[in-house]
Give the backbone structure.
Amino acid sequence: MPLNLQIHTEHFTNPLYLESGRILEPYDIAYETYGELNDDKSNVVIVCHALTGSQHAAGIYKDETKAGWWDGLIGSKKAIDTDKYFVISSNVIGSCFGSTGPMSKQKSNGEYYRYKFPVVTVKDMVKAQRILFDRLNIHRVHAIVGGSMGGMQALAFAVHYPNFSSKIIAMAATHATQPWAIAFNKVAQESILKDPNFKQGYYDPQVIKEQGLSGMAVGRMAGHISYLSPESMATKFGREYKRTDGLYELFGKFQVESYLEYNGYNFTKWFDPLAYLYITKAINIFDLARGFDSLADALKKITSSIYLISFRDDLLFKNIEMKKIADTLGEIAYKKYDYIDIDSGYGHDAFLVELEKFEYYIKDALDG
């Protein structure tokens, strides 16, 4: 069966009350769907994206060659099988792919929000999605799946909307963002803020799209280091040197340097710098236990079956962080959970790259 990729945007005029006490109104949510919704709406699977992801999780747009970021996992006969499931993937608020974010225009004056945009949290992102699903007349879903910040969203759904999803599959995430990850985000933040072309947030978005932003590129390079591991870098690049560069040229490059440069500078032409600042803030302040006496108290709210996946050499959100969630579920004698640590030397991005190592697990969790 074809993927049946459908592109949508929903407009909301009711105020969205945020965790900070501020209000966002009106706002848009851009989303995609794949597969067919069955008659009793029991086959919905929600996919949540990571920091720089978008609603485009699967399939290929007309005139483009790059498939959605989880295309290997979503589709006919794949782990998230669109012959069986109706998959919804939405762009989080605060992002820059059609949902309302810092470079959206304000209704009151037609100017970009920029810093007038409120700080949003992962809980706010999830709340906005919950309102979207109400609009779509979907009040309970089969499963919610996500990795990294997508895993954070899945866990937030489990805690704050405990009867909404039968199954929660969270991978490469954490119960609360730790100093190591916050430190990498700080490098990216400073690199953006100190770039004169950022113009203290008052840049022309068209100029950034055409020329990029070198400070943001540097920050992204630091991010890329945290997404890989020493082992995966050694495998991927070794000590290969760029063939056209001399070994004794001061700025001659190793392949790993070329890779970081290419990905860093390319990234800045398609991802908005203010959105990057806002979303990394949401990641930094993520803490499942906020508003509860402890992580255990937060997890006591859960009623879904929980499937937790970590990756052995994830440097960004270490496997012990996911294991802590599993251990705490064990301590509160919660029966419906399972935890697996994938034997992977790839690093954090294994959840996007090494699909063959965990797709069977997702398939079993969804179909079981």
Observations:
- The radius of gyration is 20 Å.
